[in-house]
Amino acid sequence: MRAFTLVELLVALVLGMVVALAAFASFRIAAKSMSAAGNLSRENRVIAQGYFAAMSEADFWYAEDDPFAASGQAQRRSYDGAGGPVAVGTDRSHGQPFAEMDQSDEFWNFNLADQRTWSRQGEYKCTHFFSWSTGSYAQVGCIDHPDPSGACAWMHVVQDRLYSCLGWNGYLDYVPSPWTLGFYLGCRNDTDPPYNSFNLATTGTPGGAWAMTAFPDEFWMSGMNAYPHFQASYHAPEKALGRSGIHIYGISTLFSPRPGWTESGANAEYLRASVGTLVDRAPTYNDLVPRLPGLSASLPHASLTCPGWPELSVKVLRSSDLLVTGRTKATIAVSNPTTGSRHSISFLPIGSTLRGARQQRQWPHWGGASLDR
What we know:
Structural class: alpha+beta
Low-confidence stretches: 125-129
Radius of gyration: 30 Å
Mean pLDDT: 81
């Protein structure tokens, strides 16, 4: 029987090596594909976790208020300018979004046919503004208006309670849509300071062109941000009487998370956020961008993944601006230490309003807090 020749043996060896290399390449590609599929699967699971965490925050506002622990309820009281707790309605105090608030039944059961709900404001209470003769719209309505039916005072009392209890951002979220923004204080005579619905003396805006004594100074100068609105443009204050008007010129209103829930360990900006609007008018003036790390909620529990898995970051920012009132923006970022890849997804979830979140705190299994009365 004839054996293989040397040439046949060499050809067989070459063919065998080709087959072996092809098999090795196939196994290598299969292994890489399985590894890539595993990485993508883990990334997808982490992204899904981030999505559910963002939606949970959009619905329940955990970053702003902890319904189960008093240590996480910093936004349930009023503060002075230095950050010290003070009684609601104290002059130059700043209410917070989750503070308790008393309102009449007519506010909770709002009825447009009720004359008390009709807007009774004008541009000014002062008689002059930048040399313009304006008259005093406090004759139409104010906190101590003498109208015996109370209709001319009711709306101003309600708005003062909203602002005093909830701060600027809470006020803007709660004020009924048909109303223009702003309310007039009470005044007993020409020498005593004006007073609010808590019967406490309140600083009006100083004299001169800014003599808007009907508005609390903090509401007018910080909430409506009077300087960038009017001092630079000489626009009439009526421009700021609507939700969009107070947000022109790169001005925004934001909520802020409580301590421990901010981005990269930044200090929580909830006190500053409750004072009034923030300005983003680069390069001339920018009060917003440097504060964003303390205004963005960074969910601490979202990063608890298995060792070696993609790292997750979830941020939620609540804001109002010229175009949208009550916007919630969620950003999910995933970093994969295995592949070095990083993905970021932003979306606008539809979650609960502040009023909805406050109602949730009144659930019996959440402590039954009486926030809206």
